[in-house]
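Aim 2 progress update. The chain analyzed this quarter is reproduced below.
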Amino acid sequence: MPQIKVSLNIGLVNATQEDIIDIDETEWSECETDEQREDLISDYWRDWSNNHIDGSAELVE
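Predicted structure tokens:
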């Protein structure tokens, strides 16, 4: 199973999260080009990073 190392840093000291995640073998093997593999890696990173980000926005008048 392919694995990728992912990281997320918000620019503060010690505010880094790193992990190694597995990519589904079927999804990986269905990629026909390096570009498709890079897109798949980006999708996995985006999904992983969204699970580590918590934030909100509020209108201030």
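The first strand starts at residue 3 and ends at 9. Strands lie at 3-9, 16-22. These observations will guide the mutagenesis experiments scheduled for the next reporting period.
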